[in-house]
Amino acid sequence: MAPPSGPPGVTPSMIRAPPSQLGQTPLPGSPLSNAPPYIAPPPGRPMGAPAPYMANPNPNPNPNPVSQPPQAGPPAAAAQPNPVMGLAASLQNSMIGTPASQSFASRPFPSTAQRPVSVPFSGSLNQNPLGSKGSGPFPGQPASQPYPGPPALASQPVRGPPQLFPGQIVGQPPMGQPPMGQPPMGQPPMGQLHMGQPQMGLGPMGPPSMAAPPMGAPPMGSAAAPFSGSAWQGQQRQGGMLAPVRMAPAGMGQQSMVSTPGAVMGYSPHAGAQVGTPSKIDPNQIPRPVPSSNSSVVYFETRQGSVVSPPPPATSDFIVRDTGNCSPRLMRCTMNQIPCNGEILTQSCMPLALMVQPFALPHPSEEPIQLVDFGEMGPVRCVRCKAYINPFMRFIDQGRRFVCNLCGFCNDTPRDYICNLGPDMRRRDADERPELCRGTVEFVATKEFMVREPMPAVYFFLVDVSMNAVGTGATAAACSAISQAISDIPEGPQTMVGIATFDSTIHFYNLKRSQQQPVMLIVPDVEDVYTPLQTDLIVPLGECREALEQLLESIPSMYQTNKIADSAFGAAIKAGFLALKPTGGKLLVFQSVLPSLGIGSLSSREAEGRTNVSNADKEPHKLLQPADKTLKTMAVEFAEYQVCIDVFLMTQTYVDIASISVVPSTTGGQIYYYYPFSAVSDPAKLYNDLRWNLSRPQGFEAVMRVRCSQGLQVQEYSGNFCKRVPTDIDLPAIDSDKTIMVTFKHDDKFQEGAECGFQCAILYTTVHGQRRIRVMNLSLPCTTVLGNLFRSADLDSQFSCFLKKAANGIPTTPLTQVREQIVNHCINILGSYRKFCASISSSGQLILPEALKLLPLYTLALIKSVGLRNDGRLDDRSYWASHVASISASLAVPLVYPRLISIHDLTSMEEGDSVLPAPVALSSEYLSDEGVFLLENGEDALIYVGGMVNPEILQKLFGSPSLEGVPSQLVLQQFDNDLSKKFNEVINEIRRQRCSYLRLRLCKKGEPSGMCFHSYMVEDKAPGSLSYVEFLVHVHRQIQIQTKSN
Ligand SMILES: [Zn+2]
């Protein structure tokens, strides 16, 4: 519980620290420290007392400036001595591999395509980032698989039509070597068929195919092994991670097969009709994420010369070395080879999109992003398309000219930047210059990129003090959280804060030091809002810390007897905005009831929703659209002035999240949702959420653009931002948790063997007031072979696309249709593979591309998720949609397919195992009545207690031999026994991994809470929905129909 003080100088061995300390310690010069350790603050910690857990003391994403590129030297060598040695061992103990997926191997490919990009980035960057108003008004303030189970094939005798093995999945290619730790991609050794040569009639016990490349073998067709042992000490080859990707004849690649009964007719996916003989599929043999019992971390080099290795799964543990392409944490493509033309892409039915998470937390052992300062001349850019210099620009003519990898233009090299070429035709200084050898760098922005001085870090808090807010304890919780979190804010000279409260009117407080007591200034007009003061509403934190703490302590009692039930939310955020308008900044709103008064007030649409929401065929989805455009219009104006709004909803009623969420989503913020709010259990989460909000790596007043090689063009951006011009997105704030999805379409063709480049540039201001341009590059090989697309498909990214598209569809399309679209999308992808790539044509088998074999499972989980099931509350669904809009690829899968682990037997885990036990499949079959289980999706953690749990276990975990009286909204305590201690360790490790505090709920068998828990058992059959086995049969059937009709 001691704050891991974060003195620099942390060594990798720190990773052995208890979970509570993990990630606390930013590496010296590390771009960002690790995820925060989330620990419950002692409930009732007195306000103003020092926070028990230090916030990341170094949120500055770029603390390791390299002032002169030439001196950069071997990147980070000094800052991070020996980053690899000893890591693997310690990481093994502390990191858990997450379930899901597998990866692939590398393949070679060469380069370049061209395309003129019309609007130069600098064009808009040169514009006032504030829009037209930036300078004027504010002078002074300038501006996988083994199928988890053992190969239990023998248990299911061969029978039924198709003579292949019913009930069996044949993984392809067989991978002999058992996976090390990580999601084994390998198939069970028995019953495998070699892909290209199905041996019909070979019994399930048949020997593994000889022809199959052994798992650990280097990828075929590529000159270099993707992970060369010499480069990465301690690195483990992962069985599954290196599935050979061979440039084999189309379609002969990796695939999985699930035999399904041939005669399954006339059955509808949602009607829950009887499936023919699903029992012929052995549930132990269907694709599931592979738990890794003894997790190990994967080392990933983004490129090996001309070889691009597909990244490890987003959900796995890995350490990246940037060798030309950016880290997959920052940009991850739905496919790791790019289709040469639109026809192949269309044929594949797969989405082509990038998941961009520009401030994603690096692994603590990764090298920091290098800062490059070109001085007054600014970063070298392509004259035509304004792309930034990057490792894929090709120098020619003795270094005097360079060819842009995006548009193909041949540029003159600036005189000061000329350097001779070596025999390899690279610049002789290429390895010393980060911008020429790293996929991600940051450039110091020159004056050209500023229309005003970079803005200070400004935080303005708005607290609901209406009757309900005070009565439920929400006001007190908010004040306490703010008070504690403020002590964690890095107090730069430029850090400013302000505060206001509101009910039917708005109350500002003058925090100026000269005032003995903060003076309250009331703004009664909630239709035409103004601010009472031009100055002094926002003051440097150093000047008002004490006054602010006192004020926060007194606010709950000041309004203790408040009888005003109305809440002028819209007016309050407008007023807060006016206070922030001169500088821009973050507005953090703590709201408890439906906004009922003044500008942007809302009516309770829930009553209408309640009668309709259970019937998905009517139009309840319209209730998931904003009530009107008022808040959206306001939000666009906020964004223009660089004001980002986060809304903390602590409520026990409907608050119309559909309407409220447009404010954060337009301004780069987010919604936090505490429902039903509990004054007992939620304050700890609120504090941790707020603290992470303030201390996580982030940037302000950002503008982002993605460029790509000629042949492709950006189709659409999706996420939390404001868009005023077609090419750029405006982000008043951007932080490490936010992901922006960028979709692409072809506008031309690529040559086979060419590379397609992607470059994301984000201009932003650091929390310390420095203007920077973070540039991330990804260059991927192009292919005309459909099989290569499937082989290089990225499951996590593709599923993220599914998820985001579903969320986008929710407000405009009836739920049944959204579900159908998602299922059809899945079927079309798998159907395309079946039709064009699969090597076995037996109709009795469902053949899945290896890389996407979990797609059906995740699709099923998605249509059963909170967002897409019929029985959800309106606000729950709206919250889900808004949460999903900016979710990262690494959290997308767990949100929908949560992690389930058993708790009652934690003490039987051996020393040296990872903190977390291997996850269990989401099926009731795995829940024993004597067991206690934990299910977590990154947001919520449900603790399920079976009906016959040993009272001793209950006593150890909950401090009582029976659950009577133990509230469902649990406050986790640690008791003096091993089981309790391990349970707490597990929870804290999950919090750390997810960067989320998690809401704990107790679910008891036989009670509604238990039913709620069971709704997450996505493999189960439920009323109106299919079991996993049934779903596979359905998918298979649809593919058969598709295939026949063609
Ligand atoms: Zn160019």
UniProtKB/TrEMBL annotation:
Q: Where is this region: Disordered?
A: 1-213
Looking at the record, the residues that make up the Gelsolin-like domain are 914-985
What region holds the Sec23/Sec24 helical domain?
794-891
Please list the coiled coil stretches.
Answer: none
Q: Which GO terms describe its biological process?
A: COPII-coated vesicle cargo loading; intracellular protein transport
Q: Which controlled-vocabulary keywords does the entry list?
A: Protein transport, Transport
Give every Sec23/Sec24 beta-sandwich domain span: 699-783
- Zinc finger Sec23/Sec24-type domain boundaries: 379-417
Pfam families, per database record:
Gelsolin (PF00626), Sec23_BS (PF08033), Sec23_helical (PF04815), Sec23_trunk (PF04811), zf-Sec23_Sec24 (PF04810)
The GO cellular component terms are: COPII vesicle coat; endoplasmic reticulum exit site
Task: Locate the compositionally biased regions of type Pro residues.
Answer: 1-10, 58-73, 175-187
Bias (Polar residues) occurs at: 90-130
Top-rank taxon: Eukaryota
Residue ranges annotated for the Sec23/Sec24 trunk domain, each copy included: 454-693
For bias type Low complexity, the affected ranges are 46-57, 74-84, 188-204
Molecular function (Gene Ontology), one example: SNARE binding
Which family is this protein grouped under? Belongs to the SEC23/SEC24 family. SEC24 subfamily.
Q: What is this protein called?
A: Protein transport protein Sec24-like CEF
The organism is Rhynchospora breviuscula
